[in-house]
Design a protein that fits this description.
Structural class: alpha+beta
Oligomer: single chain
Helix content: 25-40%
Mean pLDDT: 91
Distance between the termini: 66 Å
CATH architecture of one domain: 2-Layer Sandwich
Number of helices: 6
Shape: globular
Largest sheet: 5 strands, antiparallel
CATH topology of one domain: Muramoyl-pentapeptide Carboxypeptidase, domain 2
């Protein structure tokens, strides 16, 4: 007859560890170039929040924060402004070219998503809200688009 401990141990299936998403060398260079476009205070807040995220064994399994946008030209801003209006897709911005904090160099805004272990990119509101707490803790001057007043919440967006 098995003892309680041995039956418990015998019933444990091997635990499958989820891989931590990793950026390729090319992706790392792209991230560094995008971060280099941000004003120093925003870049420092992002770097600190990223280090804290990656230092947490649970958060880093959820996905790796990545910069999807920092500086964007007024022309690109106008393309995004047209989305959901004169072009198909959801509305992603209420700022026309030249009116966004992304349109300055160095940029006073950056957008974040998450690289998942399967290579997909996610804009999960839950992950972005967790990352927002780290960004705001790193620098009180950082504003998160998820906190914008009104109905439009730009959760990937961080600005100073």
């Amino acid at each position: 007859m098995e003892t309680g401990l041995s039956s418990t141990v015998a019933s444990l299936a091997p635990v499958k560890l989820r891989p931590v998403p990793k950026l390729s060398d090319v992706q790392q260079r792209i991230q560094a170039a995008r971060l280099g476009q941000a004003v120093p205070s925003l870049a420092a807040a992002y770097s600190q929040a990223l280090a804290r995220w990656m230092g947490d064994p649970v958060l880093r399994l959820a996905g790796v924060p990545i910069l999807t946008d920092c500086y964007r030209s007024p022309e690109r801003q106008n393309e995004l402004f047209a989305q959901g209006r004169s072009k198909p897709g959801p509305v992603v911005t209420y700022k026309r070219g030249g009116k966004s904090k992304h349109n300055l160099l160095p940029a006073r805004a950056l957008d974040v998503a998450f690289l998942l272990a399967d290579g997909e990119v996610s804009w999960s509101g839950l992950l972005l809200s967790k990352f927002a707490r780290l960004m705001k803790a790193a620098d009180a001057r950082v504003h998160w688009g998820g906190d914008f007043p009104g109905d439009f919440k730009d959760r990937p967006h961080f600005e100073v």
